[in-house]
Amino acid sequence: VEEERRLCYVGMSRARKRLSLSRARTRRTYGSQLSQMPSRFLDEIPGHLLQQETVHSSGNDFPWSPPRRRSATRSVAAPKSEPKPAAATAGIPAMYQVGKRLYHPKFGIGTVQEVGEGNHGLKLKIRFADGTKTILPKFVELKPA
Q: What is the pLDDT of residues 37-64, one digit of tens each?
């Protein structure tokens, strides 16, 4: 894993002014449509350096109707100013912050996309390999991934 991480960052450091990263959300292998998770190394890039630029899609999202072609592009650029901490994240446990990776016993490893309050306390939207799920940590044991 360390060698993969090193190779990833060597490749990223070769960019002179701007770096565009893309990935396939789904991939067809031996006739089956499989969801793909983004590289684990992308979560190690500080969020304030990432900016989603474009998302091209034709067809509906998997699994209802497999897309014909899908790509997502993210750019990494130097920040113009230091990011300010969000006041809303002050009372949220560190493991539930946006961008953190968590393990769910049924869905596997996912990345926290949104954090909010629901009728039963903390509510998380987590992106897993098979889609985004809304999870109430009060009712399920989540572990850091």
A: 777 777 777 777 777 665 655 544 444 3
